[in-house]
Amino acid sequence: MGLCIPNYIYLPRDFVYILFMLFKPVVPVRRLPLRILLSLLLVFGLTGMVEAKKVSSKTSTPAKELFGHMKVPAQMKPQPIGSYAKGCLAGAERLPANGSSWQAMRLSRNRYWGHPELIAFIEKFARTVTEKDNWPGLLVGDLSQPRGGPMMGDHASHQIGMDVDIWLNPMPNKRLSKRERENISAVSTIKNRREINPKVWTTGHAKILRRAALDKQVARIFINPAIKKEMCKWSKQQKDRSWLRKLRPWYGHHYHFHVRLKCPKGASSCKNQNPPPPGTGCGKELAYWLSDKPYRRTPPKPGEKIKKKRPIRLADLPKRCVAVLNDPGEIKQAAVKR
After folding, report:
1. Mean pLDDT on 282-310
2. CATH 3.30.1380.10 segments of the chain
């Protein structure tokens, strides 16, 4: 499918004035043919004159809308800023859509950006599980947005470029098309909240989870409680089971597992999460998650008003996130591709 390019582009008033002063009275510059405009931009270097209004930390616009509209990363030194669920990302690197042992999914979301250490981890992990665990390859879901920050919709974390969702589907033995990457569904590996689905779950799944948990860069891995139960059972005969503490039961996470890396060394602006408690987590903690308690919801009292949680705003994030959001990297691209 070809790219549709408009014949004309509508220009801001200030930019029209500049062109008018240069080319009067040759052409009505308010409606220049796009090809001529792009030539002018390249020849006279006028892209820097197209500026966007900078966002103030006092804006009431939800941060998820501000960061969700960023298309390219901030051209800064790579740096995760803040915490996993309240922060942003400078100098993000893009995960290639295809590798010898991975394929990125849902490309339209533009959530395949991460800190360089996360990108390197994914590529290394993908190669390792194919070579040592006989896993066909990884289907990689969401990382972070180009500048991190809160997302529209389904993630509370993934804000600083140190989180990645990896599908529990093995990679197929073919290169997926863009359409397939948008439409193929991840497959659930559980029968219910307490049991895995033996028709879907394999020893291969267990091996790659263990492989990820053994990596020193990994802080924790979020999985479904039924999967944690299965991992506790599968590893019973192993001498060293300390890696199990990194496998954290959480709601959902039966279509994918969520890997969270530790903050990079020397990243003073990055805030690590407290480490998981000691032990395997296969006792009382798991029993709680397999009970009904985590899923109970207390109904409101008669006449009680339910307060909606206010969305995170830019002022709630670390101050450096304002500079990340206002970095001109996005403006320069917009000026050329508008």
Report:
1. 88
2. 63-290
The pTM score is 0.81
Q: Retrieve residue 110's tokens.
A: 């533009």
The mean per-residue pLDDT over the stretch 190-214 comes to 97
In sequence order, the 6+-apart residues with CB closer than 8 A to the CB of 86 are 159, 312, 316, 317, 318
Calculate the dihedral angle through the C-alpha atoms of 210, 212, 216, 221, rounding to the nearest 10 degrees: -100
| CATH 3.30.1380.10 matches 63-290 | yes
Which of the two residues, 152 and 113, has the higher pLDDT score? Answer: 113
Predicted confidence at residue 306, as pLDDT, reads: 77
Pair 149, 67: CB distance under 8 Å: yes
Tell me the one-letter amino acid at 274: N
Contacts of 212 (CB under 8 A, 6+ apart): 125, 218, 221, 257, 259
* pLDDT at residue 37, as a whole number: 55
Q: Is the peptide bond before 25 cis (omega within 30 degrees of 0)?
A: yes
At 4 the pLDDT is 42
d(CA 157, CA 139) in angstroms, rounded, equals 20
